[in-house]
Amino acid sequence: MNRDSATALHRLPAADACALPAADAGAPHAGWAGFGRTLLEGLREDFRRTGARVGHVKMLLSAGSEQCIANLTSTDGEVCVRGQAGNAGRAELVLNARVEMPPEELEALVRGHLSAAAAGGVAAEIVHLQSLRPGRPRPTHRYRCVVGP
Asked: CA torsion sign, 69 to 106 to 135 to 100?
């Protein structure tokens, strides 16, 4: 099952600042890279809990001229985050997930974890969302027999 979404993220206006809150001991994440890690780690835990097999979950988070990419390839693996997207007041997130579960369930999980990761001062607006179940592959060429060495 495949899920593609593009999401624009921006921080709710604060009285005197337009940046993500500074990290403190109780903060769930620091900066946009931490936001992305929190999002993917939450998804990983739900995929693990439900027994859903992960093909891939890829994330691109852009804030101004900075980018952060992250991926997850199994429920047993760690979320890999590369780059820093800083603490700019606005960022864009593109998420592509291929997970063995009904598209409606995957969409609900992504929406829920996006809201959870955004709690504490980030507003998330979904700009484009597409959920689908890929069709059965139809190879162009088939071999009649296996050729050995």
From this structure: positive
Q: Edge to edge, what strands does the sheet with 80-83 contain?
A: 80-83, 66-72, 54-63, 90-99, 2-11, 122-132
Delineate the domains of the chain, giving CATH numbers in brackets. Answer: 2-132 (3.30.70)
Q: Is the pTM of this model over 0.90?
A: no
Q: Which two tokens stand for residue 117?
A: 């990761």
pLDDT band at 27 (very low <50, low <70, confident <90, very high): very low
What distance in Å separates the CA atoms of residue 13 and residue 1, rounded to the nearest whole number?
37
